[in-house]
Design brief:
48% of the residues lie in helices and 18% in strands. The protein is an alpha+beta fold. It has a seven-stranded antiparallel β-sheet with strand order 13-12-18-17-16-14-15, sandwiched between helices. Helix 19 runs antiparallel to helix 20, helix 23 runs antiparallel to helix 24 and helix 27 runs antiparallel to helix 28.
């Protein structure tokens, strides 16, 4: 969380450092600096009063703050990350707001606690505030306020960016919580108010009182507690960045004048709670697993002991064979090679006994029964080894196989016939792989045990299965069997199939390091590996930042599937064009980064030019793929790589500001053409509404510019229908409630599409409101009377008239005179009564 918060601080600071913002602040500060203190206070108060008393966002005074160059830049940033940003606004050094992405309540902010905290008596500090609700994200926001300095380190203004709290925690606490869905996680203030977690509305509920003492202590805690009568395990970790941090101020020391409550003196902590019984259930499963493994190991130890026993018992076996010969009637004494003082004494005693057995014969029948019992015992031992889940091979140092169980044959794909060669297992080892390459001979498990004469434990090795080309994974262990003379007699190799566990490990590693949509590396992998690449041997290192232009526009117009397709195509082009040793990652919604070791600026520019050339060949929904780039090259070893990254990012944003307007204008034309191809009736209807709207505007004595805007808005009023299924647009009969709800979205979609370009912003507002009614029962906002823009009211009449007099699948066509009467009957309810009078008076001219 600390890392995510610092990333947002860096993002806000990057916005604040752009030239367009600094130049705007310099002009505004110079204007107010020319006043005396009293004159300046009076001017600010007058501006603030005018702002607060003006509700119409189309008012020229409001537009000076919402439609200037800085506001357009901030809006473009906001639109690129619609789920992240709330409102963004800029004040000069006197607290006067000069640019904003939304109509705020006030224009003067110098009395606000967060402004005073960030201004810090002219010193400036980064300030975090978690008290606000923002309609633009329909949720609670964390405000990050940063001071802005000129080139001489003088504080010249304050930028505040509101970030969606839910978005902030999406990639931190929420992902952690997925580790155990049974538990509950929270981000909590010191005094218990919940900021995020467990689907609770931020800042609306408090945590259990039993935890307040621990939260106030600000210590790391892992403890069993009784909460509301239930035994639970509780873990608490304070977020140091939000409490007495040296890096920024959180909550602050200034009194709040516009909030009834706040977080003065508080910080954030992460709290994780899980019931004791649920947590222990997982632990019990671990015990069961360990028990199973222990049983298997006991089997292996038993087998090893039996084999060692065989080695140690060989002298006794030789003596036993001697005895068997005597028992079969051969009473001739022999010299046999056996060692050991006790065994030699035993043989001497036996030799003496032979001298006394000349007339005594041992029962052959009894010896045969003894041999039968030995065979039964050996069979049981063999059955036991074959039931073990581990593959087991016992091999002599000369490579001959003493024993191999059924599990080993199955895992290695070896038949009894293949084993006749006695070296089949050694032949098999050549299929072992480490990191995709053949395992060196000296690292074969059998050779490791022979060379070291020590146990080998759980070595994970990949095996490329012969004939099948399947890669399996084995956990291999080995034990040497050494006799009393320190001679290696045998090697016992055991192994388990751990393919499923290994594949899960590989998949988890892939998910942790790769972007799920494009398959490129993600931000985490990029940040971890940038340090490894930032070495002297890789100089020059070039970092290129890339940003997909118009992603939000395509998402709004054609849906997120088309937007995803755009990102996938862009990622494919970038990764295929770059060199194999380049690091390519997707680090944001539509942002990519390329790290190019041993690459100069000129070489990087050639790669970027190739990407631009290839992107022009890609069209998604007939809209050409457009990518903005910025790059910077590190040539000196002690140069900060993060500064190189930030410079590349700034240059990318500058290029984006130049490319976006023309790209979006062309996209709107493409969307309109696509709509007309999709539904021929829409083109006829739109041109008719445009013409009727133009004539009504002329009849109402509007200016030439206003008439032109009405005409254009009439042509574009249904552009939002691009996302409406054709089955709904051309449906016979009445729409269902769900279908009608879908259809009503087209005015808002049209607004978002048109509002993406500066020159269409005025038109977008007309399109947004063209289905509002005079009585307030329209949509999407339900506004009424004069609050509905005049031009929208004109289009409403033209749209209704053409709909009634044109062929429609859902109703019969009526005459123009009947349509006029319908409009007259709806004056004062659906339509502006004064405009209806104009329409009626000039009816003959309008419908000409």
């Amino acid at each position: 969380i600390e890392k995510d918060l610092l990333e947002l601080v860096r993002l806000t600071t990057t916005l604040a450092s752009t030239n367009v913002i600094k130049e705007s602040l310099t002009l505004s500060n110079n204007e107010f600096a020319s006043f005396t203190v009293s004159e300046r206070d009076a001017a600010i108060e007058d501006l603030n009063t005018t702002w607060m008393n003006t509700g119409d966002i189309n008012d020229p005074f409001i537009k000076t703050r919402m439609e200037n160059d800085v506001a357009s830049f901030l809006v473009s940033q906001q639109e690129e990350f619609p789920d992240l940003y709330g409102e963004i606004f800029l004040t000069n050094e006197y607290g006067v707001m000069i640019s904003t992405t939304g109509k705020l309540t006030t224009l003067a902010h110098c009395e606000k606690y967060w402004w005073q905290g960030a201004f810090d008596d002219g010193e400036g500090t980064v300030y975090l505030d978690d008290r606000g609700y923002d309609d633009s994200v329909d949720g609670y926001v964390l405000g990050i306020v940063v001071p802005i300095y000129d080139n001489e380190d003088n504080l010249i203004g304050i930028l505040k960016s509101n970030y969606n709290i839910a978005y902030i925690f999406e990639n931190s606490v929420s992902q952690f919580h997925n580790l155990n869905l049974e538990g509950e996680y929270f981000v909590v203030r010191t005094l218990g108010l919940i900021v995020d977690g467990n689907n609770i509305e931020p800042l609306s509920e408090s945590i259990s009182e039993g935890l307040l003492t621990y939260l106030e202590q600000r210590d790391i805690l892992s403890k069993e507690l009784n909460l509301e009568g239930v035994n639970k395990f509780v873990a608490i970790a304070p977020i140091n960045l939000t409490f007495e941090s040296d890096e920024l101020e959180f909550g602050g020391s200034y009194e709040s004048v516009d909030h009834s409550s706040g977080n003065l003196g508080e910080g954030w902590s992460v709290v994780y709670i899980i019931e004791k019984n649920i947590a222990l259930s997982d632990l019990r499963m671990e015990y069961i697993y360990l028990g199973s493994v222990s049983v298997g190991l006991l089997f292996l130890v038993g087998i090893t002991s039996l084999i060692i026993g065989q080695v140690l018992s060989k002298p006794f076996v030789k003596l036993n064979n001697y005895i068997l010969e005597v028992g079969q009637g051969n009473l001739v004494k022999k010299d046999i090679d056996i060692s050991g003082y006790e065994i030699e004494n035993l043989k001497q005693s036996f030799d003496s006994m032979i001298d006394n057995l000349s007339v005594t014969l041992i029962s052959k029948d009894k010896l045969e029964k003894s041999e039968a019992r030995l065979q039964v015992s050996e069979k049981r031992y063999r059955e036991l080894v074959d039931t073990i889940e581990a593959g087991i091979i016992v091999r002599n140092p000369d490579t001959s196989i003493t024993m191999i169980n059924e599990k080993a044959k199955k895992l290695l794909g070896l038949s009894d016939k293949a084993l006749k060669g006695r070296k089949a297992v050694d032949h098999f080892w050549k299929y072992f792989r480490v990191n995709g390459k053949p395992l060196p001979l000296e690292e074969y498990p059998i050779n490791l045990v022979i060379s070291s004469r020590k146990q080998l434990r759980n070595k994970i090795i990949g095996v490329l299965m012969p004939k099948m080309d399947d890669l399996i994974w084995l956990s291999v262990s080995g034990t040497p069997v050494i006799d009393d003379n320190d001679t290696l007699k045998e090697v016992i190799i055991s192994f388990f199939d751990v393919t499923n566990l290994k594949l899960q490990e590989i998949e988890l590693a892939y998910q942790a390091n790769n972007d799920f949509l494009t398959g490129l590396y993600n931000r985490r992998y990029y940040e971890d590996n940038l340090k490894l690449l930032d070495i002297k041997e890789n100089l020059p290192i070039t970092i290129a930042m890339a940003d997909i232009n118009g992603l939000k526009l395509i998402n709004d117009a054609f849906g997120h599937d088309s937007g995803d397709e755009l990102l996938i195509e862009a990622a494919k082009i970038i990764s295929e064009t770059c060199n194999k040793d380049n690091l390519v990652a997707r680090i944001g919604g539509d942002e990519f980064v390329i790290v190019m070791p041993k690459t100069s600026g000129k070489e990087a520019e050639k790669i970027i030019n190739k990407i631009h050339k290839k992107s022009k060949l890609v069209n998604i929904e007939s809209i050409q793929l457009s990518i903005s780039f910025g790059y910077k090259t590190k040539t000196i070893n002690n140069e900060n790589i993060q500064e190189v990254y930030r410079t590349a990012e700034d240059l990318m944003y500058r290029e984006k500001l130049l490319e976006i307007p023309s790209m979006r204008s062309g996209a709107i034309e493409t969307i309109l053409s696509t709509l007309y191809e999709k539904d021929k009736n829409s083109e006829v209807h739109s041109r008719s509404v445009s013409l009727l709207s133009e004539r009504i505007a002329k009849a109402n004595d509007m200016s030439r510019q206003d008439i032109a805007e009405v005409k254009t808005a009439g042509l574009l009023h249904d552009i939002g229908k691009i996302i409406i299924p054709l089955s709904i647009i051309n449906k016979d009969g009445k729409l269902t409630e769900q279908e009608y709800s879908t259809m009503k979205n087209h005015s808002e979609i049209g607004f978002r599409i048109l509002n993406s370009t500066h020159e269409m912003r005025a038109i977008s507002d007309i399109v947004l409101n063209h289905h509002e009614r005079w009585d307030g029962k329209g949509y999407p906002r339900g506004i009424k009377k004069e609050k509905i823009p005049l031009k929208s009211r004109i289009i409403a009449i033209a749209d209704a008239f053409d709909a009634m007099t044109s062929i429609r699948t859902y109703r019969e066509i009526i005459s123009k005179e009947e349509a006029l009467q319908e409009i007259i009957n709806s004056a004062g309810t659906q339509f502006d009564p004064e405009l209806v009078k104009v329409f009626e008076k000039h009816f003959a001219e309008i419908i000409l």
